[in-house]
Structures are given as structure tokens and as C-alpha cells.
Amino acid sequence: MRQYSADLTPPWKKSPPVPEVAAEPGLVVEEPGTGFCGAVIRCEAGTVTLEDRFGKHRVFPLEPRGFLLEGRVVTLVRPSAAPVRPTRTASGSVAVPGARARVARAGRIYVEGRHDAELVEKVWGDDLRVEGVVVEYLEGVDDLPSIVADFAPGPDARLGVLVDHLVPGTKEWRIAESVTSEHALVVGHPYIDIWEAVKPSSLGIAGWPRVPHGQDWKTGVCRALGWPSENTSAVWQAILKRVGSYKDLEPELLGRVEELIDFVTGSGGA
After folding, report:
1. What's CA 138's distance to the chain center, in Å?
2. Boundaries of each DUF3097 domain copy (predicted)?
């Protein structure tokens, strides 16, 4: 007697197909059974290792329909063995394979703090090296007039400055206006801290919490989100790991950094 292996499951009881996604390093997914959300750091035969924002590692089996990607059920699969050479840099620019770093220009870009400098380096580092632009950081803008005066910007040594939370009418705004010239450009983003320029969706949070006026912003954010507030530097490193490209940043920051690079390299007009 012939045997058949026909699937007799009624159509309305069958699970709809889900996309297969390569478990590439840096891909952020959630394991719905435990609620663990993290970035892929390793994918081996039958398992995937995730790292959450605090650096904790968990290993999960590569099961069908086993993960959530941006809220959608997916099946993770092992990436293809042959790595694909990236055609774009983290900033979205066309990659130049084998390009050597250019000798540093006389021009510079200053940003307001170490975290700002680290974020700019991660996303725009390849572009900056090709252009020979060095990024340095300053602690606040109160000393900006003397810094600009000492730098003495000119046609062959332009100076660009990125300032946090630059709001018209404030002291910082007036300082920025006082040093802006044909060869010195100061621009700002609307965020209280550079952390806010990272999209909440890239961190697996609904949004950046509001912190009462007078309270340290980073500490308040960590407490509100249940992150360790005693070491905000470690929290920042965990945030930075989630930034893979310009797609993880808010457009208000992207536009300002691109504007400064164009200005310093002389490709943005004047």
C-alpha cells in the first residue's frame, strides 16, 4: 500500500512564512521567550551569541521563528562564509578600498566632549581619514573664543565646531555667534547630550526619558531606564556598540557633521 506524506494541516492553522535573516555581527534582535535583546557577536553551528547593552552575553539556538527583528518574527540563519566587502562607509559614503589616510590638514573639527568625538569617529572616521581631517574635543564652549583666537583660522586652515544643545538666545549661542567667521563655522544640534542623537529604536528603548531640570542628565537617564547610573562611561560604551552606521543616528546630527566636513575640506561653498 502506497504511503503519502501529504500535509493535512488545515490552511488556517498553518503558521505564515517568516523571512530568513543572516545573523551578521552587530544585528540587534530579541529572543521573545526571555525578552533578552542584544547584538549578534558570534554565530556558530546551531547557535547565536547576543550581547546586551550592559555587555552581558547569552547563547540561543538557531530555531525557526526564534527571534524578533524590529518587532517582526524572523528566522536567523548563519551568514554566508564569504565576507562581502562593504561598498559604503558607516556614514553612507562610497567606500574606497585600499585608500590611504591623507596627511592631516591644517583645518580641524572640534566637538564638545569625548563621547561626541568617539561617535563622530565611529561613523565618519573612514571619511575623515581620506580627507585628512582631525577631530578634537573641547570641554564646554566657555573657552571657545580663546581657542579660536589661538587657532587663527584662515583660508588654508578652516575650523569647524560642533556644539551640544545650541539654542538661540542662550549664552552658548552668543559665544558661537561671536566666533563665527568666513573661516570658522560653529553649528549645533538640539540634543542635551550626544547620547540623544542615537535613535532610541537602535537601543531597544521607546524613547529618551525627560530628566528634571537641575539633575545630571546622564545619571537621570540611566536611572529612568534601569541602566547602571554609577558608571555612565560604561553605559556610553554599550550605547556606542549599538551604532553601526549613520542609520542609527538622528538626522539633526547627521546634517551638522556633514556640514562641518564640507566646510573644513572646502567642498561646501565659501
Report:
1. 21
2. 20-79, 108-265
CB atoms within 10 A of CB 186: 24
Cα 226 from chain centroid (whole Å): 21
Residues with pLDDT less than 70, the chain: 1-16, 81-105, 267-270
Query: What are the DSSP calls for the chain, one per residue?
Result: --------S-GGGSPPP--EEE--TT-EEEETTTTEEEEEEEEETTEEEEE-TTS-EEEEE--TT-EEETTEEEEEEPPPSSPPPPSB-TTSPBP-TTPPPPPPPS-EEEESSHHHHHHHHHHHHHHHHHHT-EEEE-S-STTHHHHHHHH--BTTB-EEEEETT--TTSHHHHHHHHH-BTTEEEEE-S-SSGGGGB-HHHHT-S-PPP--TTS-HHHHHHHHHT--TT-HHHHHHHHHHT--SGGGB-HHHHHHHHHHHHHHHT-S--
Give me the pLDDT at residue 115, please: 93
- pLDDT, tens digit, 9 for 90 and up, residues 109-161: 999 888 999 999 999 988 888 888 888 888 778 888 998 999 999 998 999 99
What domains can be seen in the chain, in order of their start residue?
18-77 (2.30.30), 108-265 (no CATH)
At 4 the pLDDT is 40
